[in-house]
Amino acid sequence: MNTISIHWTPDLAVGITEIDDQHRQLFSLLADFYTNLQKGAGRDVLAKMLEDLMTYAGQHFIAEEAYLKDHPDLAQHRQQHYSFIKQMNQYERDYLHGNISLSVDMVKYVTNWLQGHISGTDKEFFSSMQSKAE
Ligand SMILES: [Fe+2]
Asked: How much distance in Å is there from the Cα of 4 to the middle of ligand 1?
C-alpha cells in the first residue's frame, strides 16, 4: 500500500500563528484529498476538492506575501508561489481534459513542495522579518 504521511509538523513553524494555521490547513486539505483518492472517490468529488485546495492556497499566498511585503527578496518568493500554482493548474487542466487521472504523484508533488517551500523559504523569510522587527 502506497501511503504518504501528510501533516504539518512543528519543525515547519514560522512563528506567526495565522500563517502556521494556514500551513496546517493546507496539509489537512491535501490529506483529505488523498484519503478520497485512495477510497476511489469520483471525478467530480476529486475535482472539487482540488479546486478548494487551490483556492485556499491562493488566499494563503496572498496573506503570506502581505506579511512579507517589505522583504527585499519578496519577488523571488512570489515566483516560487507562482510556479507552484502554474504546475497545479497544469495538473488540473490535464485532469479536466481527461489526459491524466489525479494520482498519488500529484499528492507527492504537493506534499514535497509544501515541506520544501515552508522549511527552505518561508522559515527563512519569516525569521529575517522578525529579527528586523526586534
Ligand atoms: Fe511561501
From this structure: 22
Range of the domain at 105: 11-133
- Cα of 78 to ligand 1 centre, how many Å? 7
Band of residue 1 on the pLDDT scale cut at 50, 70, 90: very low
d(CA 87, CA 83): 6
Provide the grid cell at 18.
495565522
Residue 6 is assigned to a structural domain of this protein: no
Residue 1 included in any domain: no
How many whole angstroms from 81 Cα to the centroid of ligand 1? 6
Q: State the pTM of this model.
A: 0.92
Q: CA end-to-end span of the chain, whole Å?
A: 48
Ligand 1 mean position to 40 CA, how many Å?
31
pLDDT in tens, 17-63: 999 999 999 999 999 999 999 999 998 899 999 999 999 999 999 99
